[in-house]
Design brief:
alpha+beta; 86 residues; globular; two-stranded antiparallel sheet
């Protein structure tokens, strides 16, 4: 049997809405992002809010070590890692 690899990156808005239904709020997501910045030794974390109705956005910038493309892709995929693994 031949296997086939497929790419299935999450759609950000759909994922946020799904997680919100499980009790994962925008505030909790923002706190996780800031915590991730701190865990990669960022000495500066900047959070900007731009309020413009449906075009509102939050931007988080840090000077941490960053990620390689493969690591970023893995981290963005919901369920890519088992949280029970070491």
């Amino acid at each position: 049997m031949k296997s086939k690899t497929r790419s299935a990156p999450p759609r950000a808005m759909a994922m946020l809405e799904s997680l919100r239904g499980l009790g994962y709020s925008t505030g909790a997501a923002l706190a996780d992002i800031i915590d991730n910045s701190i865990s990669v030794d960022a000495s500066e974390v900047r959070v900007d809010f731009a309020w413009d109705g449906l075009n509102s956005r939050i931007t988080v910038l840090d000077d941490g070590r960053g990620m390689a493309d493969a690591e970023l892709e893995s981290e963005m995929r919901l369920g890519d890692k088992n949280p029970l693994d070491a």
